[in-house]
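User: Need the bound-state model for adenosine-5'-triphosphate:
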Amino acid sequence: MNAPLYAIPGATKAVATSPAADAPPAAPPTGPAAAPAPACTVAEVLRDSQVEPVLAELDRELIGLAPVKQRIRDIAALLVIDKLRLNLGLQAQAPSLHMSFTGNPGTGKTTVALRMAEILQRLGYVRKGHLVAVTRDDLVGQYIGHTAPKTKEVLKKAMGGVLFIDEAYYLYRPENERDYGQEAIEILLQVMENQRDDLVVILAGYKDRMDTFFKSNPGLSSRIAHHLDFPDYAQGELMAIAQRMLAGMAYRFTPDARQAFDEYLVRRRAQPHFANARSVRNALDRARLRQASRLFADRERVLDEAALTTLDESDIRASRIFQG
Ligand SMILES: Nc1ncnc2c1ncn2[C@@H]1O[C@H](COP(=O)(O)OP(=O)(O)OP(=O)(O)O)[C@@H](O)[C@H]1O
Ligand SMILES: [Mg+2]
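Assistant: Bound-state model below.
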Protein backbone atom coordinates (compact mmCIF):
# COMPACT_ATOMS: atom_id res chain seq x y z
CA MET A 1 0.00 0.00 0.00
CA ASN A 2 1.47 3.30 -1.01
CA ALA A 3 0.26 6.57 0.43
CA PRO A 4 0.16 9.33 -2.16
CA LEU A 5 3.18 11.57 -2.44
CA TYR A 6 2.05 14.96 -3.43
CA ALA A 7 3.11 18.55 -3.64
CA ILE A 8 1.07 21.69 -3.16
CA PRO A 9 0.43 23.09 -6.59
CA GLY A 10 2.16 26.43 -6.93
CA ALA A 11 3.55 26.31 -3.42
CA THR A 12 6.76 28.00 -4.41
CA LYS A 13 4.89 30.86 -6.06
CA ALA A 14 2.31 33.25 -4.78
CA VAL A 15 -1.18 31.72 -4.89
CA ALA A 16 -2.68 33.15 -8.05
CA THR A 17 -6.22 33.30 -6.70
CA SER A 18 -5.43 35.34 -3.63
CA PRO A 19 -6.03 39.04 -4.14
CA ALA A 20 -2.77 40.12 -2.54
CA ALA A 21 -0.82 38.03 -5.05
CA ASP A 22 -1.68 40.65 -7.64
CA ALA A 23 -0.11 43.39 -5.58
CA PRO A 24 3.22 44.65 -6.92
CA PRO A 25 6.31 43.31 -5.16
CA ALA A 26 7.31 45.49 -2.24
CA ALA A 27 10.72 46.73 -3.34
CA PRO A 28 11.96 45.44 -6.66
CA PRO A 29 15.74 45.25 -6.44
CA THR A 30 17.29 47.39 -9.14
CA GLY A 31 20.89 46.42 -8.61
CA PRO A 32 23.40 45.24 -6.07
CA ALA A 33 23.23 48.58 -4.27
CA ALA A 34 19.44 48.25 -3.81
CA ALA A 35 19.53 45.25 -1.43
CA PRO A 36 16.49 45.80 0.84
CA ALA A 37 17.12 46.53 4.47
CA PRO A 38 16.10 43.67 6.76
CA ALA A 39 12.53 43.95 8.00
CA CYS A 40 12.10 45.51 11.42
CA THR A 41 8.32 45.65 11.75
CA VAL A 42 5.68 42.92 11.74
CA ALA A 43 4.06 44.63 8.77
CA GLU A 44 7.29 44.40 6.78
CA VAL A 45 7.72 40.69 7.47
CA LEU A 46 4.08 40.05 6.55
CA ARG A 47 4.43 42.05 3.36
CA ASP A 48 7.71 40.43 2.32
CA SER A 49 6.54 36.90 3.07
CA GLN A 50 2.98 37.14 1.70
CA VAL A 51 1.90 34.85 4.50
CA GLU A 52 -1.31 36.68 5.31
CA PRO A 53 -3.21 35.54 2.20
CA VAL A 54 -2.57 31.93 3.25
CA LEU A 55 -3.86 32.60 6.76
CA ALA A 56 -6.90 34.38 5.35
CA GLU A 57 -7.60 31.51 2.96
CA LEU A 58 -7.35 29.02 5.80
CA ASP A 59 -9.87 31.07 7.77
CA ARG A 60 -12.21 31.46 4.84
CA GLU A 61 -12.14 28.00 3.32
CA LEU A 62 -12.20 25.83 6.38
CA ILE A 63 -15.39 25.69 8.41
CA GLY A 64 -15.06 25.61 12.20
CA LEU A 65 -11.70 24.43 13.58
CA ALA A 66 -11.46 27.59 15.69
CA PRO A 67 -8.83 26.22 18.11
CA VAL A 68 -6.70 24.91 15.24
CA LYS A 69 -6.87 28.19 13.35
CA GLN A 70 -5.91 30.08 16.51
CA ARG A 71 -2.91 27.82 17.11
CA ILE A 72 -1.75 28.33 13.53
CA ARG A 73 -2.03 32.09 13.91
CA ASP A 74 -0.01 31.83 17.14
CA ILE A 75 2.66 29.78 15.42
CA ALA A 76 2.78 32.26 12.53
CA ALA A 77 3.15 35.12 15.02
CA LEU A 78 5.99 33.29 16.76
CA LEU A 79 7.78 32.81 13.44
CA VAL A 80 7.32 36.43 12.38
CA ILE A 81 8.77 37.65 15.67
CA ASP A 82 11.55 35.07 15.35
CA LYS A 83 12.40 36.59 11.95
CA LEU A 84 12.62 40.06 13.48
CA ARG A 85 14.83 38.74 16.26
CA LEU A 86 17.06 37.04 13.71
CA ASN A 87 17.38 40.30 11.81
CA LEU A 88 18.78 41.85 14.97
CA GLY A 89 21.09 38.88 15.48
CA LEU A 90 19.26 37.81 18.62
CA GLN A 91 18.94 34.11 17.97
CA ALA A 92 21.22 31.59 16.34
CA GLN A 93 19.19 28.37 16.45
CA ALA A 94 16.35 27.44 14.11
CA PRO A 95 13.14 27.05 16.13
CA SER A 96 11.76 23.55 16.51
CA LEU A 97 8.68 23.29 14.34
CA HIS A 98 7.83 19.61 14.41
CA MET A 99 4.17 19.07 15.19
CA SER A 100 1.54 16.52 16.02
CA PHE A 101 -1.96 16.72 14.54
CA THR A 102 -4.38 14.58 16.50
CA GLY A 103 -8.02 13.97 15.76
CA ASN A 104 -10.53 11.59 14.30
CA PRO A 105 -10.65 10.76 10.58
CA GLY A 106 -11.86 13.51 8.28
CA THR A 107 -11.30 16.39 10.70
CA GLY A 108 -9.05 18.28 8.28
CA LYS A 109 -5.56 17.21 9.37
CA THR A 110 -4.15 16.66 5.89
CA THR A 111 -5.79 19.82 4.56
CA VAL A 112 -4.33 21.94 7.36
CA ALA A 113 -0.90 20.30 6.96
CA LEU A 114 -0.82 21.43 3.33
CA ARG A 115 -1.51 25.01 4.42
CA MET A 116 1.05 24.78 7.18
CA ALA A 117 3.68 23.73 4.65
CA GLU A 118 2.86 26.79 2.60
CA ILE A 119 3.04 29.11 5.61
CA LEU A 120 6.44 27.70 6.61
CA GLN A 121 7.72 28.12 3.08
CA ARG A 122 6.56 31.71 2.79
CA LEU A 123 8.19 32.61 6.07
CA GLY A 124 11.40 30.95 4.90
CA TYR A 125 11.49 28.06 7.38
CA VAL A 126 11.57 25.45 4.60
CA ARG A 127 12.81 25.99 1.06
CA LYS A 128 10.12 24.37 -1.06
CA GLY A 129 6.99 24.00 1.05
CA HIS A 130 5.79 20.74 -0.46
CA LEU A 131 4.13 18.03 1.60
CA VAL A 132 5.10 14.37 1.45
CA ALA A 133 2.43 12.21 3.09
CA VAL A 134 3.44 8.72 4.17
CA THR A 135 2.41 5.85 6.42
CA ARG A 136 4.44 3.11 8.09
CA ASP A 137 4.67 1.04 4.91
CA ASP A 138 6.50 3.82 3.10
CA LEU A 139 9.17 4.00 5.80
CA VAL A 140 9.58 0.49 7.15
CA GLY A 141 10.84 -2.49 5.15
CA GLN A 142 9.87 -6.16 5.45
CA TYR A 143 13.39 -7.53 5.68
CA ILE A 144 16.60 -6.75 7.47
CA GLY A 145 18.48 -3.90 5.78
CA HIS A 146 15.44 -2.56 3.91
CA THR A 147 14.22 0.03 6.40
CA ALA A 148 17.11 2.50 6.45
CA PRO A 149 17.19 2.99 2.65
CA LYS A 150 13.39 3.32 2.54
CA THR A 151 13.25 5.88 5.33
CA LYS A 152 16.17 7.84 3.88
CA GLU A 153 14.58 7.91 0.45
CA VAL A 154 11.37 9.38 1.92
CA LEU A 155 13.36 11.91 3.93
CA LYS A 156 15.20 12.94 0.79
CA LYS A 157 11.90 13.56 -1.00
CA ALA A 158 10.55 15.54 1.93
CA MET A 159 13.63 17.69 2.48
CA GLY A 160 12.79 21.37 2.03
CA GLY A 161 9.17 20.73 2.98
CA VAL A 162 6.91 18.87 5.38
CA LEU A 163 6.95 15.15 6.05
CA PHE A 164 3.44 14.15 7.15
CA ILE A 165 3.34 10.73 8.82
CA ASP A 166 -0.24 9.50 9.07
CA GLU A 167 -1.10 7.07 11.89
CA ALA A 168 2.45 7.52 13.14
CA TYR A 169 1.90 5.10 16.06
CA TYR A 170 2.10 2.15 13.67
CA LEU A 171 5.83 2.84 13.54
CA TYR A 172 6.09 1.46 17.06
CA ARG A 173 5.09 -2.15 17.67
CA PRO A 174 6.27 -3.15 21.13
CA GLU A 175 4.73 -6.62 20.72
CA ASN A 176 7.29 -7.45 18.04
CA GLU A 177 10.65 -7.98 19.66
CA ARG A 178 12.73 -6.70 16.76
CA ASP A 179 10.39 -4.55 14.76
CA TYR A 180 11.98 -2.56 11.97
CA GLY A 181 9.77 0.42 12.87
CA GLN A 182 12.20 1.22 15.65
CA GLU A 183 14.95 1.68 13.07
CA ALA A 184 12.81 4.18 11.15
CA ILE A 185 12.07 6.09 14.37
CA GLU A 186 15.78 6.35 15.16
CA ILE A 187 16.60 7.76 11.72
CA LEU A 188 13.68 10.18 11.99
CA LEU A 189 14.89 11.36 15.38
CA GLN A 190 18.34 12.18 14.03
CA VAL A 191 17.00 14.11 11.07
CA MET A 192 14.41 15.93 13.18
CA GLU A 193 17.23 17.14 15.37
CA ASN A 194 19.98 17.82 12.84
CA GLN A 195 18.07 19.03 9.81
CA ARG A 196 15.26 20.91 11.44
CA ASP A 197 16.22 24.05 9.54
CA ASP A 198 14.92 22.44 6.35
CA LEU A 199 12.46 19.71 7.28
CA VAL A 200 9.34 19.83 9.43
CA VAL A 201 7.80 16.55 10.53
CA ILE A 202 4.09 16.34 11.34
CA LEU A 203 2.91 13.18 13.11
CA ALA A 204 -0.81 12.58 12.72
CA GLY A 205 -3.39 10.16 14.06
CA TYR A 206 -6.02 9.41 16.67
CA LYS A 207 -5.45 11.32 19.90
CA ASP A 208 -5.49 8.41 22.36
CA ARG A 209 -3.16 6.24 20.31
CA MET A 210 -0.81 9.13 19.73
CA ASP A 211 -0.67 9.85 23.47
CA THR A 212 0.31 6.23 24.15
CA PHE A 213 2.86 6.36 21.33
CA PHE A 214 4.46 9.50 22.76
CA LYS A 215 4.61 7.97 26.24
CA SER A 216 6.55 5.02 24.85
CA ASN A 217 8.78 7.24 22.72
CA PRO A 218 9.83 10.18 24.89
CA GLY A 219 12.62 11.03 22.43
CA LEU A 220 10.08 11.75 19.74
CA SER A 221 7.68 13.45 22.09
CA SER A 222 10.32 15.89 23.30
CA ARG A 223 11.07 16.95 19.73
CA ILE A 224 7.48 17.90 19.00
CA ALA A 225 7.06 21.59 19.68
CA HIS A 226 3.38 22.00 18.78
CA HIS A 227 0.47 19.70 19.50
CA LEU A 228 -2.70 20.56 17.57
CA ASP A 229 -5.91 18.79 18.42
CA PHE A 230 -8.61 18.63 15.74
CA PRO A 231 -12.11 18.41 17.25
CA ASP A 232 -14.98 16.52 15.66
CA TYR A 233 -17.34 18.76 13.71
CA ALA A 234 -20.72 19.72 15.14
CA GLN A 235 -23.88 19.04 13.14
CA GLY A 236 -24.14 22.63 11.93
CA GLU A 237 -20.48 22.64 10.87
CA LEU A 238 -20.96 19.44 8.89
CA MET A 239 -23.93 21.03 7.10
CA ALA A 240 -21.84 24.12 6.35
CA ILE A 241 -19.03 21.90 5.04
CA ALA A 242 -21.55 20.10 2.81
CA GLN A 243 -22.82 23.40 1.40
CA ARG A 244 -19.23 24.57 0.83
CA MET A 245 -18.31 21.35 -0.96
CA LEU A 246 -21.45 21.46 -3.11
CA ALA A 247 -20.89 25.07 -4.10
CA GLY A 248 -17.31 24.15 -5.03
CA MET A 249 -18.62 21.48 -7.39
CA ALA A 250 -21.43 23.69 -8.79
CA TYR A 251 -24.26 21.76 -7.18
CA ARG A 252 -26.94 22.81 -4.74
CA PHE A 253 -29.65 21.30 -2.55
CA THR A 254 -33.33 22.05 -2.92
CA PRO A 255 -34.72 23.16 0.46
CA ASP A 256 -36.19 19.64 0.94
CA ALA A 257 -32.91 18.02 0.01
CA ARG A 258 -31.13 20.20 2.52
CA GLN A 259 -33.52 19.10 5.24
CA ALA A 260 -33.06 15.46 4.19
CA PHE A 261 -29.29 15.80 4.29
CA ASP A 262 -29.48 17.28 7.77
CA GLU A 263 -31.43 14.18 8.86
CA TYR A 264 -28.99 11.98 6.97
CA LEU A 265 -26.10 13.43 8.98
CA VAL A 266 -27.88 12.90 12.30
CA ARG A 267 -28.26 9.21 11.44
CA ARG A 268 -24.84 8.79 9.89
CA ARG A 269 -23.05 10.32 12.87
CA ALA A 270 -24.62 7.73 15.13
CA GLN A 271 -23.20 4.91 13.01
CA PRO A 272 -19.77 3.32 13.27
CA HIS A 273 -16.87 4.57 11.13
CA PHE A 274 -18.23 8.06 10.83
CA ALA A 275 -15.40 10.15 9.39
CA ASN A 276 -16.50 13.77 9.74
CA ALA A 277 -15.91 15.86 6.61
CA ARG A 278 -14.72 12.80 4.69
CA SER A 279 -18.09 11.11 5.26
CA VAL A 280 -19.82 14.29 4.10
CA ARG A 281 -17.81 14.24 0.88
CA ASN A 282 -18.57 10.56 0.30
CA ALA A 283 -22.29 11.07 0.93
CA LEU A 284 -22.38 13.96 -1.53
CA ASP A 285 -20.58 11.86 -4.13
CA ARG A 286 -23.23 9.18 -3.79
CA ALA A 287 -26.02 11.77 -4.04
CA ARG A 288 -24.46 13.05 -7.27
CA LEU A 289 -24.47 9.50 -8.64
CA ARG A 290 -28.17 9.17 -7.84
CA GLN A 291 -28.91 12.53 -9.42
CA ALA A 292 -27.08 11.43 -12.56
CA SER A 293 -29.06 8.17 -12.76
CA ARG A 294 -32.27 10.07 -12.24
CA LEU A 295 -31.48 12.49 -15.08
CA PHE A 296 -30.13 9.72 -17.29
CA ALA A 297 -33.45 7.84 -17.12
CA ASP A 298 -35.29 10.55 -19.04
CA ARG A 299 -33.70 10.58 -22.50
CA GLU A 300 -35.77 13.33 -24.07
CA ARG A 301 -35.76 15.89 -21.29
CA VAL A 302 -33.92 19.12 -21.96
CA LEU A 303 -31.42 19.41 -19.12
CA ASP A 304 -30.97 23.05 -18.27
CA GLU A 305 -28.57 24.43 -15.74
CA ALA A 306 -31.06 24.15 -12.89
CA ALA A 307 -31.65 20.47 -13.61
CA LEU A 308 -27.96 19.68 -13.88
CA THR A 309 -26.96 21.48 -10.69
CA THR A 310 -29.81 20.50 -8.37
CA LEU A 311 -29.78 17.62 -5.90
CA ASP A 312 -33.35 16.92 -4.85
CA GLU A 313 -34.81 15.20 -1.83
CA SER A 314 -35.02 11.81 -3.55
CA ASP A 315 -31.28 11.90 -4.27
CA ILE A 316 -30.70 12.03 -0.52
CA ARG A 317 -33.50 9.86 0.82
CA ALA A 318 -32.58 6.92 -1.41
CA SER A 319 -29.61 6.34 0.89
CA ARG A 320 -29.42 3.06 2.81
CA ILE A 321 -29.45 5.14 5.98
CA PHE A 322 -33.14 5.91 5.54
CA GLN A 323 -34.13 2.30 4.86
CA GLY A 324 -35.65 0.21 7.60
N1 LIG B 1 -13.19 22.47 8.12
C1 LIG B 1 -13.39 22.05 6.87
N2 LIG B 1 -14.06 22.82 6.00
C2 LIG B 1 -14.26 22.41 4.75
N3 LIG B 1 -13.84 21.24 4.26
C3 LIG B 1 -13.16 20.41 5.07
C4 LIG B 1 -12.90 20.78 6.42
N4 LIG B 1 -12.22 19.78 7.01
C5 LIG B 1 -12.05 18.83 6.09
N5 LIG B 1 -12.60 19.20 4.91
C6 LIG B 1 -12.62 18.39 3.70
O1 LIG B 1 -12.87 17.04 4.09
C7 LIG B 1 -12.02 16.12 3.44
C8 LIG B 1 -11.21 15.35 4.44
O2 LIG B 1 -10.29 16.21 5.07
P1 LIG B 1 -8.78 15.76 5.40
O3 LIG B 1 -8.33 14.75 4.40
O4 LIG B 1 -7.96 16.97 5.57
O5 LIG B 1 -9.02 15.09 6.79
P2 LIG B 1 -8.02 14.18 7.64
O6 LIG B 1 -8.19 14.58 9.06
O7 LIG B 1 -6.67 14.23 7.04
O8 LIG B 1 -8.68 12.78 7.44
P3 LIG B 1 -8.02 11.31 7.51
O9 LIG B 1 -7.74 11.06 8.94
O10 LIG B 1 -9.15 10.46 7.00
O11 LIG B 1 -6.82 11.33 6.65
C9 LIG B 1 -11.22 16.94 2.46
O12 LIG B 1 -11.89 16.86 1.22
C10 LIG B 1 -11.27 18.36 3.01
O13 LIG B 1 -11.20 19.30 1.99
MG1 LIG C 1 -5.52 12.71 6.12
